[in-house]
Amino acid sequence: MSYTTSYYHIVFRTYRSEHTICEEYERELYAYIYGIAKKLNCQTYRIGGMPDHIHIFVSLPSTMSLSAFVQRVKSETSKWLKVNPYFPHFRGWTHEYAGFSYSLRDKDMIVGYIMRQKEHHKKVEFPTEYRSFIEANGGQIDEDFFLRDE
Length: 150
Fold this sequence. Notes:
The structure is a single chain. By secondary structure, the chain is an alpha+beta fold. The chain has a single domain, classed as Alpha-Beta Plaits, CATH 3.30.70. It has 5 helices and 4 strands. Helix 1 (26-39) crosses helix 2. The radius of gyration is 15 Å and the shape is globular.
């Protein structure tokens, strides 16, 4: 029998980083994402974020790629958000996303980080957070395209 685990901390933002995820109703969005993940046989450990971006910590089955998971979540939530009266200004997600792999021993650290998003962003703006994730994980940033939507 084969055994695999893939734990990912995924971050993506709203179109043009617009503040369109209403804090009062964000839990409905997170529950919807949880339902999508469950339907795809993924284990969700934490979902959280801010009005302009989402963090998801999830393990994916061996049959699902990270890009396929993110595409499904973005596609299904985009359709749902656009018809949901609690998110009247939502126009979509950006094309890019960041996905960082972790081990099970990192679970509590990542879950805690996502839980503290509101507090964290009182001190750190999203572009700084996003840049630090990419750089800390060895990614190269192309300044011509960093956080650009067009």
